[in-house]
Write a structure and sequence with these properties.
Length: 396
């Protein structure tokens, strides 16, 4: 949570490339602390560094992808951020079966590799134009669009440069004060609607229960009488989530955001309702041990369904609808809301189970999915294959 506000500040001042690259250093240091830990305080400090830095990197990657991508692949690239995170979940569970030192060694190697690769990527064209580095911006456009030096490529570069400048003029700021967002920018129709979309989608990401199933999958299965061990259950759920997230980049530009979100929320209602019914009959003393396969099926179904929309698309849509002049602050606030709501949900889920029963909690998560679908259908614009100007026109 600490790293998220920092991301907006450093992105606004130092860009996207170098902060992402340099933040691999504290991530490496944090894993070294875990690897060579002498006592629990090493682990506390290492984990605190990881939490702060990973929050910042996640936000910076959203800025980075939205600024280097063409509208036709923008959804795919933004969704790949979540895909990368979800790859880590089953990998971490799988590494848990090996010697404990394998995990920090593997993580350090990935961090170093990421820093080396990031060095060769140029800064985003949008940030370079904001800094009035026109030549570097044109070079960046050629790199990310894989354009060679020829008259046709020169025309594409000029069109892209005009589009970037047009986006900035749409934000009603000139190049000299582009970095400072004012309160009035958040009160315009695009600014107000974009902030509402970002914060609400971030909250619904956790209020619809997917992260609870991931974090407490072992406990859920244990309470429901599943024959699987907690670690095996968590590993299966992690792989199911990865499959669902992998399907998003393959389908997002074909179906659009709203269709995926609708499928995701309706399926969540069915999955949570079925799981809640099983747990309800179990709590009432009915013999359901012969149906102990239901929890793993229902949890897998919900995680798969939510990976298609609820737990992945909020990041993509938020990045797409933010006006240029409040993008850094807007995405930062949305990500901060995501962490705050997620922390509260995880903190009080057990209290909720005690108050209304575990089946009541499952029913509640399913019920929240219904207004989630209504919000996306009636308030969130479809951003599939739309330019920045078209999205801003819809928000007005």
């Amino acid at each position: 949570m600490v790293g998220i506000p920092m991301a907006g500040i450093i992105a606004n001042k130092f860009g996207r490339k170098w902060p992402i690259l340099l933040l691999t250093i504290p991530i490496t240091v944090s894993w070294l602390l875990v690897w060579f830990a002498q006592n629990a305080y090493y682990l506390y400090v290492g984990r605190a560094i990881q939490g702060a830095v990973e929050g910042a990197i996640f936000s910076l990657c959203q800025f980075y992808f939205i600024e280097i991508s063409d509208p036709s692949v923008r959804g795919i690239l933004c969704a790949s951020t979540v895909l990368a995170g979800h790859i880590g979940v089953p990998v971490a569970f799988a590494l848990g079966y090996l010697d404990w030192a394998v995990t920090p060694i593997f993580s350090i190697a990935l961090s170093v590799l990421a820093g080396i690769l990031m060095y060769w990527f140029p800064e985003t064209p949008t940030f370079l134009v904001k800094q009035n580095k026109i030549t570097e911006a044109e070079t960046s456009i050629r790199f990310y669009k894989n354009l060679r030096a020829n008259p046709e490529a020169d025309k594409i570069v000029q069109i892209e440069m005009e589009n970037i400048k047009s986006e900035m003029s749409q934000s009603q700021t000139d190049m000299s004060n582009q970095s400072s967002a004012k309160l009035s920018d958040f009160l315009t129709n695009p600014g107000r609607k974009a902030m509402t979309i970002g914060i609400v989608l971030a909250a619904l990401n956790h209020l619809t229960g997917s992260f609870v199933l991931i974090a407490y999958s072992g406990t859920v299965f244990q309470k429901s009488g599943s024959a699987l061990s907690p670690n095996d259950s968590a590993l299966i759920i992690g792989f199911i989530q990865l499959i669902g997230t992998f399907l998003v980049p393959l389908s997002i530009e074909w179906t659009g955001r709203k269709v995926l979100y609708g499928i995701s929320t309706v399926s969540s209602v069915v999955g949570f309702g079925s799981l809640g019914t099983y747990l309800m009959f179990q709590s009432w003393g009915y013999e359901v041990s012969h149906l102990n396969w239901i929890p793993i099926v229902c949890c897998s179904f919900v995680v798969l369904a939510q990976s298609l929309g609820v737990s992945t698309l909020s990041y993509t849509v938020t990045a797409e609808v933010m006006p240029e002049n409040i993008k850094e602050i807007g995405i930062t606030i949305s990500n901060l809301a995501l962490c705050i709501v997620g922390t509260l949900v995880l903190q009080f889920t057990n209290n909720l189970d005690d108050a209304i029963g575990q089946f009541g909690t499952m029913y509640l998560f399913g019920a929240i999915s219904i207004p989630s679908a209504a919000f996306v259908i009636f308030y969130v614009p479809e951003t599939k294959n739309k330019s920045y100007e078209q999205i801003m026109a819809e928000l007005k």
